[in-house]
Amino acid sequence: MTGLDLFDPISNELNLVETGLLASIDTDLPVLEQAASHLIKAGGKRLRPAFVLLSAKLFGDDVQHAIPLAISLELIHMASLVHDDVIDNSELRRGKPTVMSQWGNRLSIYTGNYVLAKSLALIAEYQRRDVIGIMADTSMSICEGEIKQMRSCYDVSQGLKDYLRRIERKTALLIAVSCQLGAMISQAADEHVQALKRFGYYLGMAFQITDDILDFVADEEILGKPVGSDIRQGVITLPAIYALRCSQHADRLAGLLSSPRACADHAEDIVAMINDSDGIDYAYYASNRFAERALRQLDLLPDVAVRESLHRITDFISGREY
Amino acid sequence: MTGLDLFDPISNELNLVETGLLASIDTDLPVLEQAASHLIKAGGKRLRPAFVLLSAKLFGDDVQHAIPLAISLELIHMASLVHDDVIDNSELRRGKPTVMSQWGNRLSIYTGNYVLAKSLALIAEYQRRDVIGIMADTSMSICEGEIKQMRSCYDVSQGLKDYLRRIERKTALLIAVSCQLGAMISQAADEHVQALKRFGYYLGMAFQITDDILDFVADEEILGKPVGSDIRQGVITLPAIYALRCSQHADRLAGLLSSPRACADHAEDIVAMINDSDGIDYAYYASNRFAERALRQLDLLPDVAVRESLHRITDFISGREY
Q1: Domains in chain A, start-ordered, CATH in brackets?
Q2: Under an 8 A CB cutoff, do B120 and A110 touch?
Q3: Is there a contact between A105 and B125 if contact means CB atoms under 8 Å apart?
Q4: Which residues of B have a CB under 8 Å from any CB of A?
Q5: If I label B312, which of A97, A185, B28, B139 is the partner at 20 to 30 A Cα–Cα?
Q6: Is residue A319 left, alpha or beta, with left meaning phi > 0 and alpha meaning psi from -120 to 50?
Q7: Does ipTM exceed 0.85?
Q8: pTM across the whole model
Q9: What digits encode the pLDDT tens for the residues B34-48?
Q10: Given its phi and psi angles, is residue A127 left (phi above 0), alpha (psi -120 to 50 degrees) or beta?
């Protein structure tokens, strides 16, 4: 996914976020500095900072005050990535070696914890009990989501609702909170804060569904990891859930997806079977439904230029341009 | 180490901390509830909550307001323990199976993160930017300490200063902060806050040195883990550092301690050699020096009954009663 020009209205601020992310690693331990910088330089779409900044910009052009919050939310996201890489034993993320593969499990766990603590330090500066409370609750929910994801692997009995609840915790919540807090620290009215929270939630759902689709259809170069990575790890996403119900190969698919060995050895066959069902189309349909709901929230927000950007980003992220 | 009667002045409040710790695990995910409750029920000395409460009690008899802070500090400590168990691959802690051994690495990492987020939520309630800032800085320092400890394993060239800097981050800082914050949220004067912070720091240093000694001299029943656990993992503590300099077997010891294989296979020999040097006495001497410094800080604090308790706890923890 490219389309970074969608973030043009906040490109200056995103550059400051980038500088601030690197500056946030303020330690005299060279190995921690290297590992954390590697994590940051590995990139990523910086979606959460972007949504903080865009949400803030709905309520005033100067969004300098939102930069520490934007950095903080990206750090929380990074902490969960570096811990996930330990847990999944991932060698590559976005096509680059993970902290885990270069420095090992121990340092990865500590780097994650360090980055998490740093994000707390940044949030503390706002002196807002409500903001910190939301961050704490969100962090706990993300943990719950990760545990749910872990326990749902190879579980072919899971349904649409299980999947949606899982991606809600895994992705939608942090994007919802990015939008919500971006508005909260910009003195937005409560109705606007709530509308942005809902916008972020629906958009996050659409985004994760699209991201899960990419694991079936994108090529390795775009994805930065091999096609079928989810399947190889037994992660059952929406296209698979559809295929498990509606594919002509449903029974065979269930047999394969419930076996860690089969998922590892026959990922390509499984991907082909799912592509052969209408699972991908169904997932795009679901993603679009969430995107539509996100767009409806935008109508409740101030009619300023940046609202149009949020509209275009929603179209892009939900795959409406595919 | 027993001596829990030393905490008599705050025994009611410590019971409330215990209840509060269990109540803090508020999740509808049974497996997370079980793992986190297991972690809490595995016990521990609750030193950090005790120091929060005792410090608060120096400035007024009613210390109800300090209970959430006390719970929060114990949760932070627990989060670091559960992550350490993943990293060390520990089967037992305090004689009981670890979360890692019962639920595996993935769930242990997430349980640690959940507990950390919960501690943040509790701290947020105080609406004190300074308190949250101190917690964030402390969390980062603890990570740095853990990384230092990890990199110092099997390193026989390390000296006294390396060791002291390591245990400072690993232990002394969180005890210092427990005392400091207990005073801060009790409207103590700044000079008292600073004296308590120094008290906790020196006491924490004494405590960790004594704890490191126990790995050589206590029996498994008291320790809840086999004697020589540190040595087996290549963790070089003060008695070993002394022996590496002054034992007649210094060269042989250096050869053994720098080899992971030898540490694992010949831990008993190594422990015997260190016991045979004056390393244990030297470490007790060092612990006592820190305890003396801690006691001097007490002179700067209000002359109330609980100060005498802090005095006796210091004597006990530093091993002055051994």
Answers
A1: 4-317 (1.10.600.10)
A2: no
A3: no
A4: 27, 29, 31-32, 79-80, 83, 86-87, 105-107, 109-111, 113-114, 116-118, 120-121, 123-125, 127, 129, 132-133, 135-137, 139-140, 142-144, 146-148, 150-151
A5: B139
A6: left
A7: no
A8: 0.85
A9: 888 888 888 788 999
A10: left
